[in-house]
Specification:
The chain is α+β, with helices and mostly antiparallel strands. 34% of the residues lie in helices and 23% in strands. The chain has one domain: Beta Polymerase, domain 2 (2-Layer Sandwich), CATH 3.30.460. It contains 4 helices and 5 strands; from the N terminus they run H-E-E-H-E-E-E-H-H. Strand 3 and strand 4 form a beta hairpin.
Length: 128
Amino acid sequence: MTASPESVQLAIAAALAASEKLAEDIIAIDVSEHVVITDVFLMCSAANDRQVAGVVDAIEEALLKLGAKTLRREGEQENHWVLLDYGDIVIHVQLAEERIHYAIERLWKDCPLIALPAEVNSPRSARA
């Protein structure tokens, strides 16, 4: 079993929205074989707490346009690590140092990555 096309579509839309707000190191992991309650984990890093908030806002706006509503949101008080739960997709927006420290993607290293559009992780100079 692999992630549903709808989950992949949401992950790509969220990744593009995060990229527009200059999030970095954006990856989507298909966890559907290992986790019953969700299909995809999307992870990205931001340079500071204000950027984390901006990335979160952009993702929520983009996914709302696709009809997806946040089921649960955690971490917005400090904006160091914000988790957005959409059911079939869970999004982690972390400060870069938090992401390095916790390295949660290593827990899912045996899961396949979902291909994201090239512009998602293109250098900032190429985005302008």
